[in-house]
């Protein structure tokens, strides 16, 4: 569970870091986009202001042209009116032009010229602005002012002085709805909100003229002076404050990458875990959890090669009569025995050196920085334990044999050291088992093959009928070739089928009870004894009745209980 939580934490960290990187990248890109948009907004605002100035300067130029005409004609307005009509036709933004003189106004429209009273109210802001322009001899832009017939308009006022004396005003009227119409349309098509403001010629705060911005903050602001007024254009993008499409796409891509990175992290963690498991399988014995033979050989060789002058002790350990455990209780019991031995070895030697399962029921130990005498004392701990394994809830005893050798005196390499320990082990096995011995020069290298010969070939090829059986159920555990030949059985299968694998099937029926009673009387209840018996056996093929003399030796085996080793001698065929 701890590993799973760790994995989850790593995957979530990868996901979070990927999202954070995406967020940082998108934030920086968004800021860059905003900077580019801001620069573009400022440029477009400046361009729009240039168009505004051009539109207003057309009106200023017209006013100054009329002023020049009035002055040049000494105040005669007839010829000036003709010029004014031309100007109105040339500049479509201009609604009318007026010459204001002594309370009367000569108004020039597109199709006519008329003399009308002035429509500026006395004391109004426009009237004040006119007087200000006169005093300052300034061409001023007044308004927006509310005018008759046209609604709100802009007045471009030029005071006229003839020979230094005030004569009147030339006033160019521009309908506000026409003013800057094209420029405003262009700003709108470029997705900008805008606000145009101006001050009065007399000064003061900016007064709003046109606006689509509402209360939105301006991204760009450009001011300029014209006609005695300050003008200000403020603009902002219609999508200001909203996330650009490329940022949305970047976030979606970043989220996808974060998910992919998380999946890759899962795959990588799984790959690493599989690698660890594979290394564990290679380096660990699957049944006992000890080092594998391969890992032991590698680490032991590495240690000895890197510490050639330091002492070490190598040992080979073997479970005695392990085949009996498997045959009697099954392979599951054998596995339990192996795990029990591994647990003891790990507890006794694991903290001091290397311990491995060498294969089968054999184990190997290497104790670094240990002399032969020290090794003997350490290995002696193994024999202070009550060695048992548990199978199906029941404890069973077992013994182990151990052989050991010293490095570098008795072996210059791992292979040589463990080979000498192996020779010591099989010396123990051939002389009693259940104990340990250190290697000495007089031990035969052929110990293993010699032991195998003594146990197997001698029993099978003994020149006399021989068999082994268990007292508990009278089951025959072993029969040699000579006994099979005596009973006219060609192989072990025929023998088992013929006698039923029991002593009762081997003996003539009328001799069984008497023979068992005689055996028990001679041996008694001890753990070891000997009996001599006479009984008959019947051959399988010819049904001959053979009189046999048997010598039975009983010993108590830790696995099988009381076991009888029986040698048979024939006393000839009994006559009918």
UniProtKB/TrEMBL annotation:
Pfam families (UniProt xref): GGDEF
GO biological process, one term: negative regulation of bacterial-type flagellum-dependent cell motility
Entries under InterPro entries matching the protein: Diguanylate_Cyclase, GGDEF_dom, Nucleotide_cyclase, Rev_trsase/Diguanyl_cyclase
Highest taxon in the source lineage: Bacteria
A GO term, aspect molecular function: diguanylate cyclase activity
Classification via SMART domains: GGDEF
Residues of the GGDEF domain: 310-441
Gene Ontology cellular component annotations, sorted alphabetically: plasma membrane
NCBIfam families xref list: GGDEF
Protein name per Swiss-Prot or TrEMBL: GGDEF domain-containing protein
């Amino acid at each position: 569970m701890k590993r799973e939580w760790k994995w989850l934490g790593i995957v979530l960290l990868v996901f979070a870091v990927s999202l954070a990187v995406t967020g940082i990248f998108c934030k920086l890109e968004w800021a860059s986009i905003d900077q580019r948009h801001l620069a573009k907004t400022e440029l477009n605002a400046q361009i729009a202001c240039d168009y505004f100035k051009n539109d207003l300067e057309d009106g200023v130029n017209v006013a100054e042209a009329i002023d020049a005409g009035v002055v040049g004609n000494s105040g005669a307005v007839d010829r000036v009116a003709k010029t004014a009509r031309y100007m109105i036709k040339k500049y479509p933004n201009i609604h009318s032009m007026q010459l204001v003189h002594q309370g009367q106004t000569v108004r020039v429209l597109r199709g006519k010229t008329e003399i009308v009273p002035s429509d500026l109210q006395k004391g109004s802001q426009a009237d004040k602005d006119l007087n200000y322009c006169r005093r300052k001899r300034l061409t001023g832009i007044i308004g927006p002012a509310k005018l008759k017939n046209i609604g709100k308009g802009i007045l471009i006022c030029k005071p006229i002085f003839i020979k230094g004396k005030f004569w009147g005003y030339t006033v160019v009227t521009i309908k506000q709805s026409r003013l800057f119409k094209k420029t405003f349309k262009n700003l709108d098509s470029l997705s900008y909100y805008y606000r145009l403001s101006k001050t009065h010629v007399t000064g003061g705060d900016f007064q709003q003229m046109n606006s689509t911005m509402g209360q939105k903050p301006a991204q760009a602001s450009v001011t300029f002076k014209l006609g005695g007024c300050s003008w200000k254009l403020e603009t902002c993008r219609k999508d200001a404050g909203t996330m650009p499409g490329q940022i949305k796409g970047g976030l979606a891509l970043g989220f996808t990458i974060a998910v992919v990175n998380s999946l890759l992290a899962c795959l990588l963690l799984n790959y690493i875990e599989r690698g660890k498991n594979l290394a564990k399988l290679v380096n660990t014995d699957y049944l006992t959890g000890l080092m594998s033979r391969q890992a032991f050989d590698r680490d032991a060789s590495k240690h000895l090669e890197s510490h050639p002058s330091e002492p070490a002790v190598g040992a080979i350990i073997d479970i005695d009569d392990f085949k009996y455990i498997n045959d009697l209780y099954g392979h599951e019991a054998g596995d339990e025995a192996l795990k029990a031995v591994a647990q003891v070895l790990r507890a006794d030697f694991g903290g001091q050196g290397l311990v491995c399962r060498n294969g089968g029921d054999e184990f190997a130990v290497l104790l670094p920085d240990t002399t032969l005498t020290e090794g003997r004392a350490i290995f002696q701990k193994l024999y202070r334990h009550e060695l048992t394994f548990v199978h199906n809830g029941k404890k069973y005893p077992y013994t182990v044999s151990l052989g050991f050798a010293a490095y570098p005196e008795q072996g210059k390499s791992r292979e040589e050291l463990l080979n000498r320990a192996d020779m010591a082990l099989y010396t123990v096995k051939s002389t009693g088992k259940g104990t340990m011995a250190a290697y000495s020069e007089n031990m035969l290298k052929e110990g293993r093959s010699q032991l195998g010969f003594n146990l197997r070939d001698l029993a099978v090829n003994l020149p006399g009928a021989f068999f082994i059986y268990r007292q508990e159920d009278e089951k025959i555990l072993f029969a040699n070739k000579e006994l099979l030949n005596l009973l006219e059985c060609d192989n072990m299968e025929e023998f088992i089928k013929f006698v039923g694998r029991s002593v009762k099937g081997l003996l003539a029926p009328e001799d069984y009870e008497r023979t068992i009673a005689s055996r028990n009387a001679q041996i008694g209840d001890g753990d070891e004894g000997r009996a001599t018996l006479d009984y008959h056996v019947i051959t399988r093929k010819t049904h001959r009745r053979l009189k046999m003399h048997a010598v039975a030796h009983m010993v108590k085996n830790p696995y099988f209980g009381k076991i009888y080793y029986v040698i048979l001698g024939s006393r000839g065929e009994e006559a009918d």
